[in-house]
Structures are given as structure tokens and as C-alpha cells.
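Predict structure. Input: Pre-mRNA polyadenylation factor Fip1 domain-containing protein, 49 residues.
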Amino acid sequence: ADITEYFNYGFTEETWVQYCDRQRRLRNENNLARLNPTHIPAMFSGLSP
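Output follows.
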């Protein structure tokens, strides 16, 4: 089988793995940022606990 039939958009096996790893890292960073209380919008900064 011709491996190029399975990889679109110029990806090779190696670049596909790199792309997937980067997507996983970005997803993890985004999830951590959502859980981090320092990212609360400024509109709530004036409220007392």
C-alpha cells in the first residue's frame, strides 16, 4: 500500500505524530487555564468573598 494515500494535507507519519502531540498539549494547557482561579474575568474582581 502507498502510505501517502493515508496522510493528507502534507502530513507524514512523523509530522502527524508531532501535530497530535501539539494538539494534546494545547488541550491540556487550555483545561488547566480553565481550572486556574487567576483566570477569573475582571468583572468579578470587585466582589467580596
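Residues 15 and 21 are 10 Å apart (CA to CA).
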